[in-house]
Amino acid sequence: MKTFDPGNEPEILATYGRDGYVAFEGFLDRETIAAALGKIADIREGRIGGIPDDRIYFEDPADRSTLKQVQELFKWDKLFERLMFEGRARRLAEILLQDEAVGRNMQYFNKPPLVGQPTPPHQDGYYFMLKPCVAVTMWLALEPVDEETGCVRYLEGSHKAGIQPHERTQTIGFSQQVSDFDGLRGSYPERAFPAAPGTLLAHDARTVHFAGGNQSHSRTRQALGFIYYAKRAREDQAAHAAYQAKLAEDLRERGAL
Ligand SMILES: O=C(O)CCC(=O)C(=O)O
Known about the structure:
By secondary structure, the protein is an alpha+beta fold. It has helices at about 10-20, 30-45, 80-85, 90-95, 125-130, 180-185, 235-255; strands at about 20-25, 55-60, 65-70, 100-110, 120, 130, 135-140, 150-155, 165-170, 175-180, 190-195, 200-205, 210, 220-230, 235. About 30% of the residues lie in helices and about 30% in strands.
């Protein structure tokens, strides 16, 4: 795995265009990772408050130690705001999108020990509702991640299939999955990405990806996600708002919020 060098733009673009993702080691330094983990602990333990219920999800809403996802992290702390809008992630996004990168979401992803659920196979573009679908998601490991704790997996080249039909799941934070996953799996090779802290994966919004649950009795699986849209991509605002409202309603009905 290589380190990120903006001077390697042609090579980065060739890999991303061929595989639908690109991976870098050491994208974020240790000090910043430690600071980010500290801020996440502040959120988990309620020292950073004011996060609306539909922006923070727990595997068990009665147990804050099962914190699973936080949406729009850049709104809750300046460190995350800087990482999203001023750091290297945005520079990488500009390269991959070949456009101005519009920062849309920054997420915390955790799989708590044993209760951390699998990430269903999905394409982010299905949720984004963009025309054209030009967006990138980055996934950054905050700690060692392996097969046991549920590393990210890609169907390599699956971005070329375009956005596929999805169906409802019962997984909090990942409400949709590709309907014909078995069919796609037969057509595109699967690649698993065990990751060291600071490893960054960047995938095209059309690339099918998924992850196992956390089988470990003691280890968490913490990561950050960055979502950037290309300036030229247009969002269907009405469809997006209707989808978010429906999702929040479904979660409330299930008592998950
Ligand atoms: O953390 C995970 O398991 C999946 C994250 C994801 O789906 C994404 O970054 O788009």
